[in-house]
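Why should sequence recovery work at all? Because a backbone constrains its sequence more than one might expect. Tight turns favour small or flexible residues, buried strands favour hydrophobic ones, and helices have their own preferences. The token representation captures these environments compactly. In the example below, the structure is given first.
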């Protein structure tokens, strides 16, 4: 949430929506293959506006995450400019955290 930061225990219970990226739509742009994924997950109504998300790469190859967009129920769009390589978790032993570009 972009409001007051929750405690670690709250983060564990309220932010535990894990989704696997599957069935992406690929196309080429200037010779580079770009794959777009759409996922849906539940955010509790009292959570507030999400200000970050965690990405974990469980595949054996790195990938470049250009951006992510989140549409919340009131049709507000939250954009994350990531522009970063996400390496496999077995190489980094850590998740990646991306923050939104939305100013509240």
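From this structural description, the recovered sequence reads:
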């Amino acid at each position: 949430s972009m409001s007051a930061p929750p405690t670690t225990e709250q983060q564990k219970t309220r932010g535990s929506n894990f989704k696997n990226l599957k069935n992406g739509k690929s196309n080429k742009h200037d010779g580079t293959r770009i794959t777009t994924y759409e996922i849906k997950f539940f955010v509790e109504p009292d959570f507030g506006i999400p200000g970050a998300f965690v990405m974990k790469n469980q595949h054996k190859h790195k990938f470049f995450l250009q951006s992510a967009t989140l549409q919340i129920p009131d049709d507000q769009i939250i954009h994350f400019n990531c522009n970063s390589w996400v390496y496999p978790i077995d190489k980094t032993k850590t998740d990646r955290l991306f923050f939104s570009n939305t100013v509240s």
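A few observations help interpret the result. The first strand starts at residue 25 and ends at 29.
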